[in-house]
Design a protein that fits this description.
This protein has 267 residues and is of the alpha/beta class. Helices cover 30% and strands 23% of the residues. Helix 3 runs parallel beside helix 5 and helix 4 packs antiparallel against helix 5. The chain starts with 9 loop residues before the first strand and ends with a strand.
Length: 267
């Protein structure tokens, strides 16, 4: 009996991107992410991680190659659909938060979808509860702590009910408690059915969140594979100027059929 064909929810093919100043930020990036996965894109600063993420909902347009979400190419005519399916959370939450109260912040997206008042209220209250900020609905986002701002930014995206959640360095500059609560939130969202794609340079958080990871260096994908195999391979990490995890971590979820480390150019 043939196995059913599983289509990726995100597919990037031969993606190239040049910034206006001529910087060649992405160099032939190709990857696939499947429904329900939690995937990390790991690499040092300047590797091209953030640039790649900005292509996943059309904030940047490829110089060459293409990106597709749920079978639809990321291009102008499909942007409404793409942005309803892909929720992007920026590294700096101040780039995402602009309202005078948390409730208004989270309601902004659903209100612009033209939903009924009852639907907006349900979505906003559910999103705020999910991220653990209940009771702070009237507080100004700029008065929240960094960790609370990060969760508020996630809530603004969750209220739009995307299938795919894309996060840029979600634990950057957080204290241990903030890091732990963010990791736990992302794990819960993944268990609840969200496909998670996150960029990180902190190797130590990856096994606590992701099934698979891609290593980026110099605008390219240099390796990909199951998290435990990638992070136990010192040569792969060294080539990408990454340090091995500084504490021994428990690899929390098996990666199913994704059991082989694949180097760029391998078969």
């Amino acid at each position: 009996m043939k196995k059913p064909i599983v289509e990726p929810v995100v597919e990037v093919k031969d993606l190239e991107y040049f910034y206006p100043d001529g910087t060649h930020a992405l160099r032939g990036v190709s990857l696939k992410v499947f429904k329900g996965e939690s995937v990390a894109i790991l690499g040092p600063n300047g590797a091209g991680k953030s640039t790649l993420l900005l292509h996943l909902n059309g904030l940047l347009t490829p110089s060459a190659g293409n990106v597709s979400i749920l079978g639809k190419t990321v291009e102008k005519r499909n942007l409404k659909f793409i942005r309803s399916k892909v929720g992007l959370v920026f590294q700096n939450p101040d780039d995402q938060l602009f309202q005078s109260a948390l409730w208004d912040e989270v309601a902004f997206g659903p209100l612009n979808l033209g939903l009924s008042k009852d639907s907006v209220v349900r979505r906003v209250n559910a999103a705020i509860k999910t991220v653990g900020l209940s009771g702070l609905e009237k507080k100004a986002p700029h008065h929240l702590s960094l960790g609370e701002k990060r969760r508020a930014a996630i809530a603004t995206v969750l209220a739009m009910d995307p299938e795919i959640l894309v996060l840029d360095e979600p634990t950057a500059n957080l204290d241990p408690r903030g890091t732990s609560s963010t990791i736990e939130l992302l794990r819960k969202l993944n268990v609840d059915g969200k496909t998670i794609i996150l960029a990180a340079h902190d190797v130590s958080i990856v096994p606590l969140i992701a099934d698979r990871c891609f290593i980026m260096s110099g605008g390219r994908i240099s390796s990909e594979g199951r998290v435990d195999e990638i992070l136990s391979n010192a040569s792969i990490l060294s080539e990408a100027n990454l340090s091995s995890p500084y504490v021994e971590q428990r690899f929390v979820k098996p990666a199913g059929e994704y059991h082989q480390v694949r180097r760029s150019g391998s078969t």
